[in-house]
Write a structure and sequence with these properties.
Blueprint: H1 7-20, H2 24-38, E1 44-51, E2 54-62, E3 68-70, H3 74-82, E4 86-88, E5 106-114, E6 117-126, H4 134-150
Helix pairs in contact: 1-2, 1-4
């Protein structure tokens, strides 16, 4: 496992970014960059946003990604459909997993809310099996909760 992450510090940095511009695209773009740089052993960090009943690629860091994800497919679809975090130690064992990057072996996806509804997901992939711990799950859920409190969706 990588270094310990100070999720409270990430939230403080996110607060500073939101003071500059809290609109969804700039804030999600910077949030994905922060996570990509802060977390060891990740090969993708970003967001998918709800559009017309499916998830559509939003701001991210990493290799080219899948553009559309139906809610009945993949880890991201499950997180949005079930409205709960999905922490998957081996994505190859996950039914319906979508392999956007064949190097990914584990994944964590946290639903993103606005106005009480799921409006997207935060998705982080790793080439390391079982990369994400319970502490990472709790920290990333805090990060998303903070993001939900400061973001302004342009919809």
């Amino acid at each position: 496992m990588g270094k310990a992450i100070d999720y409270d510090l990430l939230c403080a940095q996110l607060r500073s970014l939101a003071e500059t511009d809290a609109h969804d695209i700039p804030l999600l773009a910077n949030a994905s960059a922060m996570l990509y740089e802060a977390l060891d052993d990740v090969n993708w960090a970003g967001f998918y946003l709800m559009r017309d009943g499916k998830l559509v690629l939003g701001p991210f860091q990493g290799k080219v990604a899948c553009v559309h994800i139906p809610l009945d497919k993949g880890v991201c679809g499950a997180a949005a459909r079930e409205d709960r975090t999905q922490r998957v130690p081996d994505v190859h064992a996950f039914p319906g997993h979508i392999a956007c990057d064949g190097a990914s072996n584990s994944e964590i996806v946290v639903p993103l809310h606005a106005g009480g509804a799921v409006v997207g997901v935060m998705d982080i992939d790793s080439p390391v099996f079982d990369r994400f711990s319970e502490a990472d799950e709790a920290g990333l859920e805090r990060f998303v909760t903070f993001l939900e409190a400061v973001i302004q969706f342009d919809r």
